[in-house]
Automatic annotation (TrEMBL):
Highest taxon in the source lineage: Bacteria
Organism of this sequence: Streptomyces luteireticuli
SUPFAM superfamilies (alphabetical): Tautomerase/MIF
Protein name: 5-carboxymethyl-2-hydroxymuconate Delta-isomerase
Gene3D superfamilies: Macrophage Migration Inhibitory Factor (3.30.429.10)
Entry-linked Pfam families: CHMI
């Protein structure tokens, strides 16, 4: 926890340094929601084809979904979403030839979320 998924257009391959983004995202997230960066897990899913709006060329898409343990307030989740959106903007700013459509969703993990128990 948090479980973070980043879906992004293939056209952002040369723009979005995924590792650097994650390594900045983890400590920022940890500080905001009172966990450790070591608890953050981020996976990236490159999307070969995306269509934005009317399908005009030069459009790119990136969406960050963050699933965190329940109990955080809505204002805190909104603050986290904004901080992630700002970080995402920083990491896609060099995409001058693309219009980047970015979004962030912060949601609670289901009550059914479990991690394996480690034998002590």
């Amino acid at each position: 926890m948090p479980q973070i998924t980043v879906d992004y257009s293939a056209s952002l391959d040369t723009v979005l340094d995924r590792r650097r983004f994650a390594l900045e995202l983890h400590p920022m997230t940890a500080e905001l929601i009172d966990t450790t960066a070591g608890n953050c897990r981020t996976r990236f899913r490159r999307i070969e084809e995306t269509v934005v709006g009317d399908g005009a060329p030069g459009q790119a898409f990136v969406h960050v979904e963050m699933a965190i343990l329940a109990g955080r307030s809505e204002p805190l989740k909104a603050e986290l979403a904004q901080a992630v959106a700002d970080l995402l903007g920083k990491h896609t700013a060099s995409a001058a030839e693309l219009t980047v459509h970015a979004s962030v969703e912060v949601r609670d993990l289901s009550a059914a979320y479990r991690k394996p128990r480690v034998n002590a």
